[in-house]
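Input set for joint prediction.
Command: fold jointly, output tokens.
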Amino acid sequence: MRGQAIFDVPLSERTTGYDIAAVLDAESKTVTGDMTAWWVNRSAIPVDHALLHLYLNAFSSNKSSFASSGRWSPAGDEGWGYVRINQMSDQYGNDLTMTMHHIAPDDGNINDRTVLQIDLPQPVQPGDTLKLNILFESKLPSPIVRTGFNKDYFWVAQWFPKFGVYETAGMRQRESDGWNCHQFHPNSEFYSNHSVYNVSVTIPSDYVAGSGGQLVEEIDNGDGTRKIRWRAEDIVDFAWTAWPGYKVVRDKWRGVDITFLTSEKGLEIADNQINAVKNGLEYLDARVGPYPWPHLTFVDPPMEGAGAGGMEYTTIFTSAGSGMIPPFLKMAEMVSIHEFGHAYFMGILASNEFEEPWLDEGVNSYWEERILDHYYGGGYGIIRLPFIKFSDADMARTSYIGSPSRQAATNDLPSWLYPHGTYGMMSYQKAATWLHTLEGIISTETMDNVFREYYRRWAFKHPSGKDFIETVNDVVTEEHGEKFGNDMNWFFDQVLYGTEICDYRVSGVTSRKITGYSGIADGDSVTFTRSDRKSDTLYLARVGIERIGGMMLPVEVLVSFDNGDEVIEEWDGKERFRDFEYTGTRKVTRVIIDPDNKIDLDINRINNSWTDDPQFTASGRMMTKFVFLMQMMISLFTI
Amino acid sequence: MDYIRILKRGAAAAATSYRLIIIMWLTALMMVLLVALPLKRILKGVFDRSLATERMLDGFDAGLVGDMGQSFGYLFGAATIGGLLLMLTGFLLFTFFAGGLFTRFAAAYGDLNVASFMKASARNFFPFLILALLMTLIIFAWTALIIGVPVGIMAAVTDGAMTGSNLMRIPFLIWALGMPLWLLVADHSRRWMAATGSGKVFRAMGAGFGSLKRKFLRSYGAMLTVMIVNLLFFGAALWIAAWSVPERGGMIFLFFLSTQLMFLIRLLLKSWRYAVVSELALLPA
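tokens >
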């Protein structure tokens, strides 16, 4: 079971592993499984119980923590889902069925049955292995939310009983040893050990299937079914899918076999989708670390499987759109790149998404935005047409700065504790926006080095947010010395652990003629004299800058003068205001705070600049278009 | 060759009505400017002396929406409400002018002077308005029946999988081929009212259906041709306007003139349709 069929040397500790023989009953929408799962006690103390995820039980009752959130309700009686353990024993033959009971460590909801505790008859000693033999039946839910079925479409994810993560003291700043196994929440799903999977699935012969594993063999059973066996190593979850309508497209990127499952309609954009994933591979491989697996499968679900869209299981993930999105809008590419990116941020760097969703979704969104804006639209990755443009980074920023709840919570909350619908905005968009800001402050090169180091230190382990910050501090100090202080904690204290907003503005600009005196200008040097007919006119120019928001970030201020001179002022941004004065023969014509747009967190960039010669050509053009559009529409709708 | 002759005669009639069409254009322009100019003022107020307007120079940077904050909401709201009001008043205005145009084409007076045009427009306004509302309702119902129902059924049966398929082009094709019929009924009816001076809407519609029935092939062919020309021009004009990104003041003024010229042509082409139907009415059954 622990054979190294794919890698010569294991990439991870391989604390857990699963051997599963499953059969899909396409009529009853169930998967029955015979599983052997093993877990190695890598702690220094005996462990007397084990915790397992039973994700599908989130769909067994409308009182589960997942369903009671209102995010899912069954499509009729057939829509309920569950995972039922029919038999469980350990390697010594002890029947564990009677020692099983459900717990709800996150919210105490007694109706939530997504975490199972097994009290072991004999503790697992340090270094020993616990083997569980389990017969289970998984009824898939409908409609599909991350997992489930719709008619003959099956997206089989989070479908088998799965170990939580046993954390030892010190790991992720934990004070004592213990299991980390959260309930299934609407907003998060992953925290798992890197595991070895040997999975065989029996499906009707006319179904096309794919998974996150490498194909080992495919056997026609001769009874209208066939058995497919996959193996996967060092991945954190195993999902698979089956549908008679899948079309299969294969490609290769360096040593990685790419399999794309899509619908007939989705075939039209197969090249775009595959290129998007190749772009992701190329970009992250160069800037973060190598993609280690020799295979990946991704799926563009058909409309009937749309609920499975936008999900990630490391070596299998889903895109979205089913070929229905117009090609000038790069949303399908965006989803593909994002979900592929999770192979790194969650798959390789297996952080705890339940507790620190920003470290998974936020970091991954940041990279998705970089990739999309790099490869598409010349910096405007989402859409780039002559009359409109939108970068992916700006789309995230807009979501954050435009949210009235942007200060409702800090960015370090567990996924299920974000208040009133702020999870997505905070975990994805705010986090990505402050990561762009961090990149702006420390430079792109240093940022890339931070992630290379983060990968080097934490690949196939379980990093925490503090581990990431420590990496940032080490790399920034090494590359920039004390330019930004002893460490970058001041940054994270504000963006991650604080709720303040960032907003700088140009409060006023004046260029006042100095009367009574004149000066002879020689470059920046001015010699004052009493009125002299041949002297230059002197000006006292004042540029006022204010910090409106509570967040304090260093900013640059570009001041331009009418003689073509430009001055870049650096301000630590800590005081509430700062005035810059210039005496000379030149008048100020333009002021721009943060001229290179490094501070994405600034919630209003319109007030970041001032000019003595405002241009309204763009608004004139927009109004001309508005007038014409209205005229044409009136003529169209009047018969 | 009746068909070509009718198209030509209609074009000549529309072209010689250029003064009336200029009146329509000017009125429509002033009406739209009543909404557009305040919107432009609001936009200027939002940006004030900021350099952020540079982000709109080569196309609108949608990232500005977040920076504009609540101002964007106000601006968007004002533009939406203003747009809806314009659609409503525009509907009334163009229905009004249709009364004058059909009188000009139906009576074969030659060109009407402005006073007569206005008088005819005013005389026909209410019956034309009722007819326009009825025909608009019929066209909405036609659209819902031919496109809405099949798409809805298809989406429900296939969970949306078939809504983008080639199969769904069939309802759109049927809808498009049916549209000339409704426009023919509307135009024949209005021509009948303008020619007889009657304000009886349902009788006019009866006459409209009757004309269509009697001269179906010639009517349908001519209307289909006129509609295709109108639609091609409409699409091309919008495409040109959307993709034009003039960046300097002078260029923007030229752009403004170009769009207005295109709108004038659009009005001319629509008048051509009215004139062609009026010519069709003169044909023997």
